[in-house]
Amino acid sequence: MAEPGAEAGAEPKTEGEAAAAAGTLPLDLTALQARFPDVAYEQPGIDGWPVLRLPLKDWRDVIAHLRDAEGFNILVDLLAVDWPERPEGRFDLVAILRRLPSTAQVRCETIVDGIASGTNAAAPGSVRVPSLTPLFESADWVEREVYDLMGIAFEGHPDMRRILLPDDWEGHPLRRDYPVEGPRVLDPTSKYAH
């Protein structure tokens, strides 16, 4: 069964679909891979925009390159996906960048492993992802959200603390191993304790 809009002769609905249909990319992949040889290109996702798989060590540098050399001037969103059983790394960290005014978009993904399970802060020695706040002011709150709900801390963030949940909340509720029976809190006198 064909995807909606994929019928023969159908016009692309998005700029991403048009770029994919034309075999063009909204970035110079050859120059990017010459500078960062470990960056892998994946076929456009369901939205029609290209996906770049980055090693964690190059996370901030590749995104800085996309901003400075390719003109991706907006961080649209930052999110994490939890894959607790995946052997190559528990979390996917995803940044969606857009180039205005053209609306060209690219999705950057990296695998993050070594994040401690458990309570509020990442354990000593666990992986910390380089913050994108030096590149995009909009990274401030979305990095705090990812930290609060998934437990991924960002190195160099100016205010790495919870943003949605109270300070005494234990755990990170969007992790797949978060207890389904509800929250636990560190302070038994908290109004959130049960």
Question: Any overview of this molecule?
Answer:
The chain is α/β, with parallel strands linked by helices. The protein has one domain (15-178): NADH:ubiquinone oxidoreductase Nqo5 subunit (Beta Polymerase, domain 2, 2-Layer Sandwich), CATH 3.30.460. The chain is built from four helices and nine strands. The longest helix has 12 residues, at 139-150.
In terms of topology, how is this protein built?
Elements: H1 15-22, H2 29-35, E1 40-42, E2 51-54, H3 59-68, E3 74-82, E4 91-99, E5 104-112, E6 129-130, H4 139-150, E7 154-155, E8 169-170, E9 184-185
Parallel strand pairs: 2-5, 6-7
Antiparallel strand pairs: 1-2, 3-4, 4-5, 8-9
List keywords for this structure.
alpha/beta; Beta Polymerase, domain 2; disordered N terminus; 22% strand; 4 helices; two-stranded parallel sheet; 5-stranded mixed β-sheet; 194 residues
Provide a brief overview of the structure.
By secondary structure, the protein is α/β, with parallel strands linked by helices. The chain has helices at residues 15-22, 29-35, 59-68, 139-150; strands spanning 40-42, 51-54, 74-82, 91-99, 104-112, 129-130, 154-155, 169-170, 184-185. The longest helix is centred in the last third of the chain and has 12 residues, at 139-150.
